[in-house]
Design goal:
This protein has about 200 residues and is an alpha/beta fold. The chain has a single domain (about 1-195), classed as Flavodoxin domain (Rossmann fold, 3-Layer(aba) Sandwich), CATH 3.40.50.360. Helix content is about 40%, strand content about 20%. The protein starts with a strand and ends in a 6-residue tail after the last helix.
């Protein structure tokens, strides 16, 4: 199984990138392979000028085409998802997300900016062919903190929602009957009352 993450922030220290890295870590702990890409992996000139034929754009399309799932994160600026992310998405083929499970993640200054995820980003993902878009994970700036040393603090509510979304994504991309992470699955079974520990 192949999973790709697309970070829509140019900063590695952004809150949206921090949530995306945490989601990637959770997927890896379940035995899934994850490739991380973002704005920083495409030369600014190619993004600004929309160089569809550029080498970086071609590499991006190749990675996305082989992925079973795509996680996309963005900060919310001026009540919309980032222009940098839009520039990245513009380099993809018209139906690049067809047949893929997509998980959108966003951070913004207030709960009201959740609408940018629902009414701004999701329609663009649909235009790229995505038909299986999981419920997005949105967090306010106060719910995600990145320390100077790189440590990430995620409020419990956001952490639970992100972990639940990652669980649903993993269930979608793993063939039925495959155990992604034995300890994780046994823990879920125990919580569900399936057996005593």
């Amino acid at each position: 199984m192949s999973i790709i993450t697309l970070a829509g922030s140019p900063s590695q220290r952004s809150r949206s990138s921090a949530l995306l890295r945490h989601a990637a870590h959770l997927l890896r702990s379940r035995g899934l392979g994850v490739v991380e890409l973002g704005l920083r992996d495409i030369p600014a000139e190619e993004l600004i000028e929309g160089h569809y034929a550029g080498a970086a754009a071609g590499a991006l399309r190749a990675r996305v085409s082989t992925a079973d799932a795509v996680l996309i994160s963005t900060p919310v600026y001026k009540a919309s998802f980032s222009g940098g992310l839009k520039a990245v998405l513009d380099l993809l083929d018209e139906k690049a997300l067809a047949g893929k499970v997509v998980l959108p993640i966003a951070t913004g200054g207030s709960p009201a900016h959740l609408l940018a995820l629902e009414y701004g980003l999701k329609p663009v993902l649909s235009a790229l062919g995505a038909r299986h878009i999981l419920a997005g994970v949105y967090a306010t700036d106060k719910q995600v903190r990145v320390e100077d040393d790189g440590r990430i603090h995620i409020d419990d509510d956001v952490r639970v929602r992100l972990e639940d979304s990652v669980d649903r994504l993993a269930e979608q991309v793993l063939p039925r009957g495959v155990v992604a992470h034995e300890a994780y699955d046994l823990g879920r079974l125990a919580l569900a009352g399936g057996f005593s520990v």
